Amino acid sequence: MPTVSPEPMSDRPFIEIDHVTFGYDSRRTILSDISLRFARGKVTAVLGGSGCGKTTLLRLIGGVHAPGSGRVVFDGEEIDTRNKQQLFRLRRRLGMLFQFGALFTDLTVFDNVAFPLREMTDLPETLIRDIVLMKLHAVGLRGAAGMRISEVSGGMARRIALARAIALDPELIMYDEPFAGLDLVSMGVTAKLIRTLTDVTGATTLLISHDVPQCMAISDWVVLMAAGGRVVAQGTPGQLMSSQDPEVRQFVRGEPDGPIRFHYPAPEVSEDFGPGRHA
Fold it and tell me: Which of 78, 85, 152, 249 is placed for a possible disulfide with 156 were both Cys, Cβ 3.0 to 4.6 Å?
């Protein structure tokens, strides 16, 4: 059962997941009848181990997949993956930071950030230039505009991807494992940027991660998911950190023993290695 009420601090959520069940095929359910509400203008972190459905959740919100049952609602409008005009209009309002940046390696830093502006607007190049330099300045990389992607570090690449994600001033920014592969300093810089951009722009931020300390430090609301696409608990960072629920406690404190098992379900050892198995 969730640790607290499933409704964060908002009269009407910006994004609502309403009793959604989803699986890529009939053999495995990725998300199991989950209901979530993401508040406008807040940072919401969705935590959980690999394979619990975090990234799938982002794909449903982005309209990449349709739920098997239930609804995904974007600012009061139910997403219909068959409606291409609606998808284009809604995607114009969101920015996405992919797990490893997904930058175009044959383009410069400047051209990577300019790409969505050139593809989705009719703005003149002079205005695009000003916007790109402004976004790069916001992430501390205006001086790197002319560099090739092969010349930048992993932490810089993540910030370039963030500048590209906010190029169109999205109302919703979704981050897929933004701290993966970063050193501690780069992680801290990235976390601070996410919090600052949310506060300055008023965007709604959805952060998918398994990095507990960084998420707890910058989030307004935290959702903990587990294997099978279950919502284990949700609440403020303080509420989850102080939870006495065994599954929540094990995950947020990184304890090796508890309800979260190391072994993937398998037959008893004696069934695989018992006498006569290899005769």
Answer: 152
Element (H, E) at 18: strand 15-22
Which of 130, 201, 152, 141 shows the shortest CA–CA distance to 172? 201
108: amino acid identity, one letter: T
Question: Is the entire prediction scored with pTM above 0.85?
Answer: no
The angle formed by the CA atoms of residues 154, 42 and 45, to the nearest 5 degrees, is 55
Per-residue confidence in pLDDT tens, the chain, 279 aa: 455 544 554 467 899 999 999 988 777 888 989 999 999 999 999 998 777 888 899 999 999 999 989 999 999 999 999 999 999 888 889 888 876 667 888 899 999 999 999 988 899 999 999 999 999 998 889 999 999 988 988 888 888 988 998 888 999 999 988 888 778 888 888 888 889 989 988 899 999 988 888 899 999 999 998 877 888 889 999 999 888 888 788 877 766 555 555 444 456 656 666 665 555
Q: How far apart are the first and last CA of the chain?
A: 47
- Cβ-defined contacts of 22-26 (< 8 Å, 24+): 22/53, 22/56, 22/60, 22/65, 22/67, 22/68, 22/229, 23/68
Q: What are phi and psi of 17, to 5 degrees?
A: -105, 110
